Known about the structure:
Layout: H1 2-13, H2 23-27, E1 37-45, E2 48-54, H3 61-73, E3 83-88, E4 95-104, E5 118-125, H4 128-132, H5 135-143, H6 157-166, H7 168-172, H8 175-183, H9 187-195, E6 200-203, H10 207-220, H11 229-241, E7 247-250, E8 257-259, H12 265-268, H13 271-279, H14 283-311, H15 315-328, H16 331-341, H17 346-364
Parallel strand pairs: 6-7
Antiparallel strand pairs: 1-2, 1-5, 3-4, 4-5, 7-8
Helix pairs in contact: 8-10, 9-10, 11-16, 13-14, 14-15, 14-16, 15-17, 16-17
Amino acid sequence: MFSSQTSSFQDSIDVEERDEFDSEDIAGYSQKIQLNCYYTIYLYQGTSLTLIDSSLPSEAEPELRTYISRRLSKGALLGGMGNIATVELSLPEQAIGCYCCLLEQERSPDQPDADGNGYVICFMGGSEKGLNLFRLELDKYVQGLHSSLQTPELQNLETEVRPYLSRWYEESVMHIYRVVQLVQSNISFLLHAALSHTHVEVTNADERTKADVSRFIKAASLQGLSQQDTTTASLCKAMSEDTQSDVVIDCSSSPPTLTNTVSNRFCDGWIQAFLNAAERCNPFLLRQILENFKLKAIQDMNSLKRFVRQAEMSHYALFRCCQFLQGCGNGDVLLQNARAEHSDLPEACNIIAVLDEFLGEQAQA
């Protein structure tokens, strides 16, 4: 049983061998932190697109405009919802991932025909698969531009809009990479904090670093996984019942000092995968590893729930529960979750109490 668990765990970590990122994808990020990335903003009125600003080479922008026009004519761009695809442009990369979003203008009594008018924002860089991993971040970043686009004739283009568009890759994609670079092998403490819903405080750091860590914790937590709402809510409840000290990251020294840290074998097992991806300077691979980390945690939670139900009727199943908890390395988090989910089921609570005692004995052995 332990060998099969180990194999499954290793499969989750070894995303370099998976289809999500083939060898060509990885090679493209192995030499530099930031790949070539571009932005373009168009004014959309009726059926026409008017270029406002772009960082694309002059020969590539008309090709993008033709592509966007086709998408709009087919109704493929909905207001406020990003669309990601691969486009072929006159660029060194030739084929490149492209995120497009239509920001519709707010209608007013003076402009009854403004429906459908607005701005089309395009971000290009990496691959379609890579950008899809950051769809939520890109959607949020585009929405942050909304207020700046209300200025008549975009008089703030050079002072606000252009600088904002130019930072899309740094702000929407690179935050996970920056956090791994910041804490290095201590990343396991942040992973455990995310799973256990422990607050992380960052001191003696700039606002960007604080925001990066907060976004990393949110991305690594199990909240927001729609198919696991019950599991996630139970975990939140379980952890909130315990008095836990905040994890503190003190950035007054380099490397930063972390206090009140907790980890386990499960979280420690992912350290090298994160460090390897960071060494490749590949933020897309880092995000895929993070998603695999969460998926494995959810799978283990579901396995334990199944074992607990079986253990109510079988001593052998209870033995399998003990084996599973000993092998998975994430027993503390899993039991907290199980305790909350089964709090109104006496038989299950008895099983969990036995498992808790077993884990305690193993820790002291």
